[in-house]
Input
Amino acid sequence: MSNHIAVDVGGTQMRAACYPSDSPTPIKIDRISTQVPYATPLERLVKLIKAVTPDGGDVAAIAVAVPGPTNPYKGIIYTAPNIPGWQNLAIGPILEEKFGIPVRLGNDANLAALGEWQFGAGKGHHHLIYMTVSTGIGTGILVDDRLLLGVDGLAAELGHVTVLPDGPMCGCGKRGHLEAVASGTAIAHWVEEQIAAGKPSSLPSKQTFTARDVGMAAAQGDPLSVEALARAGAFLGQALAGFIHTFNPSIIIIGGGVSLSGDFLMKPIQDCLKEMVISPQYLEGFVLGTSALADEAGLLGALALARSISE
Amino acid sequence: MSNHIAVDVGGTQMRAACYPSDSPTPIKIDRISTQVPYATPLERLVKLIKAVTPDGGDVAAIAVAVPGPTNPYKGIIYTAPNIPGWQNLAIGPILEEKFGIPVRLGNDANLAALGEWQFGAGKGHHHLIYMTVSTGIGTGILVDDRLLLGVDGLAAELGHVTVLPDGPMCGCGKRGHLEAVASGTAIAHWVEEQIAAGKPSSLPSKQTFTARDVGMAAAQGDPLSVEALARAGAFLGQALAGFIHTFNPSIIIIGGGVSLSGDFLMKPIQDCLKEMVISPQYLEGFVLGTSALADEAGLLGALALARSISE
Output
């Protein structure tokens, strides 16, 4: 009965926890800043893993959720936009050498999907799509109880599907992607543009704000903010209808900060699905849900991955 | 060493073949019309299976490719637009009762994908998308060597993904789907519209024609026909870029009559992929190919399915 270590690495901080084999409650948990002077993010990661390693060192495997495209077969992170130096870095093999136990790497959105599937809103579902709507849009997909990874682990980038040809520029440099019209960044930017064009709003003009501000303004009755969330919801609904035809899932789970806007976002998605899905059979027994694990999804997904190694 | 029977049912005719366990060359093959007076399509199917059953009756399993959404777990065809009476019909269980051996049903595009994967252009690939561009657009997807089916077998309907919001009406009754702008029907219809609006073409005005006519006119240098295929190719490329981000496949195989237009269609797709895919990693080692099995794909996919039952 060995322990497993799960790590969730973000651009700002990294968190790790050590779990016994029979519970999702950690026996040790810690968090540290990712980027500090005089230490690389990789050195910080090693330090953090050591900090949560139990006395006696009884650990069967380690899994790490990382914020960027990853080759999970090789344990390589291709690129992490928010972590300098993490380019084609073989984190998995490096940590295996260091700790002498199996180490697996996973993209954070993929592992959040795995977390929701094993411990959260997706329990009991075999065909699941998880989408976090936050600064960007990240997704993870389970097909027949298995993560959809593709030939090099680059699958499930549903934020980079075109929903509006010639639409706004996406963070990736291409136009009209779902992320470019429905992410938190896109929602806030659209509201800023509308205010600049003279539309009335309770939000201040000539200021930048976040999707969280938009969500709060919507809750207080600001029509422009309500419209912004409905617009994003309609784009999400259009894209999700396509993903329903593609995957025929029994559940789609929406997570991330923007999902906290609740019905202002979820109702337009739901309406759009009803209107756009080609046969009611796709929606029989189908669940459109929100994340149960919130910020814990990545860490618990890493736990699920670590446990799957030594099964 | 038992034989397997594969059947490919279309609206006009149904074909069946009996294969030995070690070869894709049939020992018996036959075809009959699907719809005749005084016999139901199901009775025709039973008759055809009997016709290819070898003397001695040594058959391990039967698989049937059917033209419509199907629940492969239950052996039910939900609907077959071109076959009257095939609505929620439990063909699998009915045939199992009749013949006393395992029978599996599969959607024809799914089984064509399986055929290309096992015997055709997709041999050796583990992550594959097959798309037939014909009257409509049908698709089948293999993820990790397994058909993507979804919770009720309704997955892989990539023709019904929105590529042009508020675009032309699709056969399914929704707007702007890939099938509505890039199928053979859509290509021919667009050319007809352009001619009606006064655009010059070597194709006749005030007549209906097919995508095959458009392909032949393009080969003879008709600029409008070349433009029509390039336009369809651009929509296909946009959609396929999204599917590449979704599935990270190592191959996409284009089949169906429209793919016979060759570079008039394939070159615009290829160009569009290069422009729209978010990272060159997705295209490293990636193959955009055409069908190797053509009209045999469905039948050979049914063979692959039948053999997988008794493995």
User: Anything to note?
Assistant: Chain B touches chain A through 45 residues (CB under 8 Å). The radius of gyration of chain B is 20 Å.
